[in-house]
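Deliverable D5.2: sample structural annotation.
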Amino acid sequence: MCWNLAQEVPVALVFNGTTAAAKITSPEGIHDFDLGFAMTEAFISEADDIAEYEQVAHKRVLKRESG
C-alpha cells in the first residue's frame, strides 16, 4: 500500500518585527494562507495594506543526541 501524505511546513507569521503566530501549513498556496490569516486577525483590512511581503525558507535541522 502506498500513502500519499500532504507535506506540511512550519510557518512563523511576523508583522512589523513581532511574531504573531506559528502555524503548520502546506507549502502550496502559502501566500494565500498568509494573506487570509492577516485579514482574519485584523492585521490588515485588504491586500493593498501590505507594504512589504517576504517569504524566507530555513533549512530544517534535526539534531539527535546519542548517549
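Annotation notes: Residues 9-48 form one domain. Helices lie at 30-40.
The annotation will be released with the project's public dataset once the embargo ends.
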